[in-house]
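Q&A log
Question type: sequence-to-structure
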Amino acid sequence: MTLGSHQRSVGKSQVHITPRWIIDKLGPFDLDPCAAKIRPWNCASVNWCGIPTTNGLEEDWYGFVWLNPPFNRYEVGQWIAKLAEHNNGIALLHARTEAAWFEPCWRHAKSILFMADRIKFCMPSGAEQPANSGAPPVLVAFGDLAAGRLRRSRIPGFLVTQWSMQDATP
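Response status: OK
Response body:
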């Protein structure tokens, strides 16, 4: 199944390591609840790598969280809902604003930065992936601290800080 004309919604790998420059501009972070098992750098002071170690969806989160969740349409919503409930962190997501899993962003985020350019995720070696992410990226801030860091980051794009929810049903 595809999301558009050429992007796959469930790829061969769910490991998309955050480029170091994003962490440098937004960090430091206390917790990365879904870190890659093999990674060239830590995105937070504590990095949970999933089963068989620590499953970030089942644990209590603490501190300022970095979230680059698996981009699997069957899982991503659970990660975003958990960050929205935690209300203290930043998520790197695809701008799939029409998807049901994006709804917690609209309902609970303090700000959303629609990045000006698509990014290239990194491989476990630290080298960039050969192609860009295939979808426009957004950084979603949950909580005041996160919103402040997005505002001060100077990452190119459009920072949205206010919106209203409307019932679109006739």
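Response note: The mean pLDDT is 88.
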